[in-house]
Amino acid sequence: MEGNELIAFQIISNVGMAKSKFIAGLNFAKLNDYVNAEAAIIEGQTFLTAGHKIHSDIIQQEAQGHKTEFSLLLMHAEDQFMTVETLKLIIVELIAMRKEFIRV
Amino acid sequence: MKNILLVCNQGMSTSFLVEKMKTVAKNENLAIHIWAVSDAELNDNWEQADIILLGPQVGYLKANTEKVVQHSKPVEVIDFVDYGRANGKAVLDKALKIIEAKG
C-alpha cells in the first residue's frame, strides 16, 4: 500500500487509537480513578497529534502545489479525525465535571 | 475452514483491510472466511467466528465484546501499526497464530 491509501490508513489508525484511549479515560473516571483517566487522555492526545501531523503534512503539500488526489477513503479518515477531536473536547469536559461534582 | 471476523465503527476502513487479507489468503491457498461488520452487527455474526478482531478505533469495546461472546473465543485489538499500513499479511498471520494456539 502506498500514497493516498497509506496516508488515509495512518490517519484512521492513529485517531482510532486516540478514540479508544479517550473512552478508556472516561471509563476510568467513572470508577473515580482520575490518575489513570488523565494518563489515558494524555496517551490519546499523543495519538491524536500523530494523526494531525500526517493530515497537516498533506495540507501543506497541497499549499505548495502538490495536490492530493481525493478519495472516499481519505474523506473517511478526515471524518474520523474530526469526530475524535470533538469527542476529546467532550470527554475532557465530562471528566472535569465529574471530578467537580464528586467533591461537592 | 477458519473464520475471522473484523469489527469496527462503520465497517469501512476495516472492509478495506479485509480485502487485503483475502488476497493474502488466496495467494497462499488458505481456505479462510474473512468478513467485516460494524459493532452494531456483532450480535448476529460472532457465533460463526473463530476469532474476533477489533479495529483500533473500537479497542475500547474489547471487554464488552468478550462479555458478548461469553469468553468462548479470542477477542483481539488489531495492532495499530499493522492497521495503519493495512498490512493484511501481518494481521492474518497473527490471527491464525492465535487460533492455532487456542485450538
SSE blueprint and pairings:
The complex is a heterodimer of chains A (104) and B (103).
Chain A: H1 3-30, H2 34-63, H3 72-103
Helix pairs in contact in A: 1-2, 1-3, 2-3
Chain B: E1 2-8, H1 12-27, E2 32-38, H2 42-45, E3 51-54, H3 62-68, E4 75-77, H4 80-84, H5 88-102
Parallel strand pairs in B: 1-2, 1-3, 3-4
Average predicted local confidence, pLDDT of chain B? 93
Domain tally of chain B = 1
- Helix count from the secondary structure assignment of chain B: 5
Distance between the termini of chain A: 54 Å
Give the total of domains of chain A: 1
Question: Beta-strand level of the residues of chain B, as a percent range?
Answer: 15-25%
CATH superfamily of chain A, by name, is: Phosphotransferase system, lactose/cellobiose-type IIA subunit
Query: CATH class of chain B, anyone?
Result: Alpha Beta
**SS-based structural class of chain A?**
mainly alpha
Round the mean pLDDT of chain A to the nearest integer and report it: 94
Structure explained in plain terms:
The complex is a heterodimer of chains A (about 100) and B (about 100). Chain A is an all-alpha fold. Chain A has a single domain (about 5-104), classed as Up-down Bundle (Methane Monooxygenase Hydroxylase, Chain G, domain 1). In chain A, about 85% of the residues lie in helices and about 0% in strands. Chain A is built from three helices and no strands. Chain A has helices at about 5-30, 35-65, 70-104. In chain A, α1 (about 5-30) runs parallel beside α3 and α2 (about 35-65) runs antiparallel to α3. In chain B, α1 packs across α5. The mean pLDDT of chain B is about 95. In chain B, about 40% of the residues are buried. Chain B is globular and about 35 Å long. Chain B has a four-stranded parallel beta sheet with strand order 2-1-3-4, with helices on both faces. In chain B, about 45% of the residues lie in helices and about 20% in strands. Chain B has one domain: 3-Layer(aba) Sandwich (Rossmann fold). The chains are: A mainly alpha (about 100), B alpha/beta (about 100). Chains A and B meet through α1 and α3 of A and α1 and α4 of B.
